[in-house]
Amino acid sequence: MSSAVEVMRRLRFSRELVLLGVLIALVIVMSLLSPLFFTLGNLLNTSRYFVEVGLMALGMTLIIITGGIDLSVGSNLALVSVAVGFTFAAGLPLPVAILFGLMVGMAAGFFNSIFITFLELHPLVVTLGTFALFQGLAYGLTGARAISDFPDWFAYFGQAYLLGAVPGQLIIFLVAVVIVWLILSRTSFGRYVYAIGNNEEAARFSGVPIRRVKVAIYTGTGLLVAIASVIYTSRVYTARGDVGLGLELDVISAVVLGGASIYGGSGTIGGTVLGIVIIAILRNGLLLAGVPSTWQLFILGVLLLVAVFLNEFFRKGEE
After folding, report:
1. Is residue 19, in this structure, part of any structural domain at all?
2. Is residue 75 a contact partner of residue 134, using CB atoms and an 8 Å limit?
């Protein structure tokens, strides 16, 4: 295995280059399956649907690099949607309701971080519990009701097009990508994130403020989830307690497919963005080709297993 990796290194292979090749091949295959796929309108329209997952995946990248996980992002999205919709219905101005929703998302992420950092519980156990907790809160507060009488300007966040073709939320996503990329690759905070993932004990002895870094990561991810929730609620123009179910699978799949190791210590924002686009292209192409949703889920699962195998392949070759 190590000799194969050495060959890849000599040929200047990287995870991102492999992912780019997969993306190109996927576009070709999907174009052959459906003549409607490779059109500018369809490709731009596809970007509308991966923005919410993409925003959550940016935060998840940092979490997974530290060796953590967050299974509650989909439930948090539902909770924020409910917070925005039902505080607005209760009489708050919508801008204040949106601000309240952002605070709820951050509070949910902070809540996760308290159990993970100060009580030192495993992130998988904590976020599995809050997955159910946040979803239960969203359902309980709404009573299966929905809010959809938002003012017209609220549609801008999830339905507007710039220059008549480019989805407005895509701009928000690109700005978020640049900000998170700069934080991870150009700041001491980003170096702390990698240090924790590579060896948390060594990072602690080196003076890395592990608790503060993890609190910031989970809280920041909560903010990104909240922004995604506002965009989602604006796009479907409805606040409900049952949104976001299953999105955590797409989010984690995008990050792992993008090269982040489930063991921590490796991962890039560029890789995550490629993973997001690959999953979006795959789902859109299979939908246009008439593939049933159950088989789409099966194919996504296979893709995730292959991604885990390849990441392990690269990781062992680098040791």
Report:
1. no
2. yes
Query: Which domain does 138 fall in, by range?
Result: 39-313
Question: How big is the chain, counted in residues?
Answer: 319
DSSP assignment letter at 160: -
One digit per residue, pLDDT tens: the chain, 319 residues?
Answer: 455 545 444 444 567 787 888 888 888 888 888 888 888 778 877 887 789 999 999 999 999 999 999 999 999 999 999 999 989 988 899 999 999 999 999 999 999 999 999 998 999 999 999 999 999 998 888 877 888 888 988 888 888 888 777 888 999 999 999 999 999 999 999 999 999 999 999 999 999 999 999 999 999 999 999 999 999 999 988 888 888 888 898 899 899 888 888 888 888 999 999 999 988 888 888 888 888 877 877 887 887 787 777 766 666 655 5
Task: Report the CATH number at residue 268.
Answer: 1.10.3470
Q: What are phi and psi of 147, to 5 degrees?
A: -115, 130
Task: Please compute, for residue 154, the number of CA atoms within 13 A of its CA located in the half-sphere on the CB side.
Answer: 23
* Residue 27 counted as domain residue: no
The closest alpha carbon to 36, from 289, 247, 270, 222, belongs to 289
Contacts of 82 (CB under 8 A, 6+ apart): 137, 138, 141, 142, 239, 240, 241
* Residue 5 burial class via C-beta count within 10 angstroms: exposed 0-12, middle 13-18, buried 19 and up: middle
CB atoms closer than 10 angstroms to residue 261: 19
pTM across the whole model: 0.90
255 alpha-carbon distance from chain centroid: 7
- Sign, CA dihedral 301-302-308-314, equals negative
Q: ∠ CA(280), CA(135), CA(132), 5° rounding? A: 100
User: Is 16 within the bounds of a domain?
Assistant: no
Give the three-state DSSP class for 179.
helix
* Structural domains counted in the chain: 1
User: What's the CA gap between 53 and 244, in Å, rounded?
Assistant: 10
Q: Is residue 171 part of a domain?
A: yes
